[in-house]
Fold this sequence. Notes:
Two copies of one chain form a homodimer.
Chain A: H1 6-19, H2 27-34, H3 38-54, E1 58-63, E2 69-74, H4 78-92, E3 98-99, E4 103-104, H5 107-110, H6 113-127, E5 134-138, H7 143-153, E6 157-162, E7 171-177, E8 184-190, E9 199-207, H8 211-222, E10 226-236, E11 248-257, E12 262-267
Parallel strand pairs in A: 5-6, 5-9, 9-10, 10-11
Antiparallel strand pairs in A: 1-2, 3-4, 6-8, 7-8, 11-12
Helix pairs in contact in A: 1-3, 6-7
Amino acid sequence: MMKVRRIERIVALTKMLVDMPGRLFSLSHFSNLFGAAKSTLSEDMVTIKEAMQQFGLGTLETVSGAAGGVRFIPHRSDQAVNNLLLELAGKLAEPERIIQGGFLYMTDILFNPALMVQIGEIFRRQLGHLAPDYIMTVETKGIPLALMTARAFDLPLVIVRQGNKVTEGPAVSINYVTGSSKRIQTMSLPRRAIQAGAKVLVIDDFMKAGGTARGMIDLAGEVGVEVVGTGVLVATAEPAQKLVQDYLALLILHDVDQYSKKIDIRPAL
Amino acid sequence: MMKVRRIERIVALTKMLVDMPGRLFSLSHFSNLFGAAKSTLSEDMVTIKEAMQQFGLGTLETVSGAAGGVRFIPHRSDQAVNNLLLELAGKLAEPERIIQGGFLYMTDILFNPALMVQIGEIFRRQLGHLAPDYIMTVETKGIPLALMTARAFDLPLVIVRQGNKVTEGPAVSINYVTGSSKRIQTMSLPRRAIQAGAKVLVIDDFMKAGGTARGMIDLAGEVGVEVVGTGVLVATAEPAQKLVQDYLALLILHDVDQYSKKIDIRPAL
């Protein structure tokens, strides 16, 4: 325990809270760490909360009671969200992204940690009310996005594997048909990855017909967990009728023209 | 632009810097945002830096010149690193983690975002001097760890794929032999994922014989990039002679005894 200046304590508190968004810290924890009274720390929290709100950076949520404490909830203003999605749409519309077969190269964006942190926080903002226990995705390209969403929620990530992997013990598998290639594939989930009865939010990078998301929902049913929502970074406008009824897409891909090299992609929020 | 109290500005600055570790922010950027003089902001940075250092949370690095600015470098004390690795070793030694075949179930730890943020920052601390341009891993289980390492470095992630995937354009492939199963497998890297001449840090969750890491190094050679280092969360003590000469392991797995259910795993730092 050490005595410190208020401003330095507030910097340290801000760092610790921001580092683990959604994580509940007890005031006793900070009281031990800084040798400060809980009443003093409460005042610090008010200051931090006001500053976060003033700049639209998030807020602090206080949970009262014995198991209570304080946690940082990241936030982005409508305008900040819109700017980010417009910027992303602009990047994704670059003609050199078109790959043989009318696919769009998105990997550089999907594997950019700083961008995915922000997208994860947008999913937290839009879908936080669903109160999931796990974030679920299927390997591979959606993993960074799903992981950063899990971070924004302070929840564990569950990754559905393609095929059966030997190193994770007993698994439940289903066959599903991908909407794009119309091939039958297998996806599986290790039994011990998730507790029966849990609520799951499915996050993926891309949805066309929705076959993969549908597969995850069916697989979740097989292991006794409930899918409370689905969020994707990009959904195609066509087919309008997808295999998943309720989903949130941040961007809608209206058209990829392989001949004129025009890509029409727009924010959906 | 708005006039704000110093303490609120410092909270907001701390949040923005901590949110993107390794990212260089110009003082002009903050000057526009807060309507404060650069000299004022410089004083704020001194306060933030002192607070971070006082509590062993990291530091601010100042880069001078026209392209200069300030960035947050996360840090953990030797003791904090040791405590985290001891805690991890304790979790990984739980007997119920043993899977048929002598494998260790690690997925719940590998897919825990808050834990992986910390491990990523340890890799940044231990391997930052290698100054890579990219973090590279192979799908699937090492991705969260590699992504959080990329976040700590503020670098893009490159994911080597197993087999050939259609949606990422032309790719370079090699065959490699996994040390554990002795099977020949294929791994591939999309041509456009990485620039020739770049320096790459390989990050993975587990190393036994080192066949997978060796494969990534060979594949990197094929696409004209240099592997400057390899970091793994867990390496087995045996075989002592691995296919990769130089690597950093955070934990060493000495023994998994399927009969007595004893797991011997220890921090390596």
